[in-house]
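Lab notebook page, bench 4
Experiment: in silico fold of construct C2
Operator: M.H.
Input chain length: 424 residues
Purpose: comparison with the prior construct
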Amino acid sequence: MDTIASLFSFITTPVSWVIVQFHTVYGALFGADTGWAWGLSIVSLVILIRICLIPLFVKQIKATRAMQTLQPEMKKIQERYKNDKQRQSEEMMKLYKETGTNPLSSCLPILAQSPFFFALYHVLNSIANNDTIGVINESLLQSAQKAHIFGAPLAATFTDSAAEAQALDASITTVRIVTAIMIVLMSASQFYTQRQLMTKNVDTTVKTPFMQQQKMLMYIFPIMFAVFGINFPVGVLVYWLTTNVWTMGQQMYVIHNNPTPGSKAQAAYLERLYKHVTHHGKTRGRGERAIVKAIVAKGRDRNEYERKFITGLSKEGLAAQADGTVIKSEVSVATAEDGTSATPKRQQPKRQTKAQRQSGGAKTADDTDPKTEPTSLSKSDEPEDAKPAAAAKKAAPKPGVGGRSKAQSGQRKGQQRSKSPSKK
């Protein structure tokens, strides 16, 4: 480990200088030789580093989501070129280049922290070996060696012997209890952070190998921390526990305010947003407008939760706009799946009965248009006394074969040819 840490010796002096500056402040409050002064100096170092790494964390989130989006395409490439690994790699690189995605972007925060981690380890190891390093001179070295966190020296490890613990003015039992508790907390925080990501902020509609890899990491990382943690000094355990807690809180904030599309976190977020928008009639803040704007821009590509959100707004008489704002609509209209207004269906004409079709499509009383209905002035001029005779003539049965007086339902449509009566 000393060989690896020495590779980062260029950053040892800046790290030791930052720790000394924070120690000066906390030493004035809690005492220069106390564990609070040195422990809080390490915690402040972590917070300072993580604040500087926030842009990389944002880039990591975007890269992770981009990788989740590309998983279906990557799976197709793997199946298509499963017997040609070289062509498979070429197609993967081509896909990354076309989409502007870098798989290593998700590892940037961890890689960026590595130099600081090894530098801090080297500083604490030098304190344990009674060696000055960076800006830590002899007086500061003695002060750090006297500092204890819950009875365990900053430079003590779980694997130290009783003689080594006694040299640092501590009990081996106390050292192992404190380090064991910190290792358990460090592993548990890492497990919870990864589990929170898998259960709440992953698109559950797409099952890909990437999800299986993340699930494996959920168990592998805590085991790695537990195995390597027994060799970490107490000060390094403080550093790593602090950075895990920071990551957990930072991730909770991102999941709550900017969840992954298609995840359970997005369903909960859109439900909260729907209640707020329907209550106030508008969106609040740039973040909410950005979410609504992205949903509107998707159109037919919206997932189940996004369609439900747009449909709910429409039923409440609200309409989401392309710029992310929400305005009131005068008429509440039903929306289709893609969020567009559903046009009313064209009414089909009434189907005529069989008798109407046989009579040439004569209109029923209900279908008569009052505008074209003839009035008494437009009736025929035949005399009134001729009407009974015409009616009687119309009602008179026509002679036919077999003495049938009415047309059967199976007769052909239209006027039938009259048959001459049989002569007696």
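Observations: The radius of gyration is 42 Å. The longest strand covers residues 318-320.
Next step: discuss at group meeting.
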